Amino acid sequence: MTPAAPVPPAPGEARRLRIGVLASQGDFAAHASMLRSLGAEPVEVRTPQGLEQLDGLVIPGGESTTITKAIERDGLGPAIRAHAEAGRPILGTCAGMIVCDREHLGLVDATAERNAFGRQIASFEVELEVEGLGPDPVRAVFIRAPRITEHGPGVDVLARVDDHPVAVRQGRMVLCAFHPELTDDSRMHALLMALATAARQDGERVASRESADA
Ligand code: GLN
After folding, report:
1. Lining residues, ligand 1, CB within 6 Å
2. For the whole model, what pTM was predicted?
3. The domain spanning residue 31 has which CATH number?
């Protein structure tokens, strides 16, 4: 059975989800407006403190070496790792996919190859079926995109182009090589918000168990 497309909580139904967008470099504003349109509160993240109290995080596309340097310069690595270790979701898109791989932040057990589609076809669009987003394909925009060349057993491949993984998931980490913020299809962001809702519910269960034990 094809799973239904993720449904974010209705605006105003729960305390709004606070979703950070790493704003070191790249197209963070488009992600913020897509999250806002789904009812989340987008938060531009530039400091380790900015990662506190977030329900989820987007690491956007841009230039992976620039983003990686900015993460080091601003001391963001430990805070991003702590966010992931707390079970909170991350959506890494394009350069964000590279930043999350084994050779960079090490959040996903996979290796991403930069500019993997070559210079000739640096940018292209395809209709892509993405597992977990329902039966309708996504219009996927690739811009000097990476792809996954190798991954461990805990990584699920959600979509492929020419048999190469271009969207993967490991637990609550979701990486895609394309730019979901450049279309009006908000299902990748809705998936992040559904994972963020699950993370928040886990947190609330732990808190109520702790107060029952107190
Ligand atoms: N080619 C870029 C890099 O390697 C990624 C491009 C993008 O994010 N659109 O960092």
Report:
1. 61-64, 94-95, 98, 114-115, 143-144
2. 0.92
3. 3.40.50.880
Q: Which of 31, 83, 94, 100 is catalytic?
A: 94
- Domain count for the chain, please give it: 1
Domain region containing 22:
18-213
The conformation of residue 65, written as its DSSP 8-state character, comes to: H
Distance of alpha carbon 50 from alpha carbon 109, whole angstroms: 26
- Give the model confidence (pLDDT) of 47-92 as tens digits: 999 999 999 999 999 999 999 999 999 999 999 999 999 999 999 9
4 in a domain, yes or no? no
Q: Looking at ligand 1, which atom is closest to the CA of residue 144?
A: 1
Tell me if 31 is assigned to some domain.
yes
From the number of C-beta atoms within 10 Å of its C-beta (0-12, 13-18, 19+), residue 101 rates as buried
Verify whether residue 72 is a known catalytic residue: no
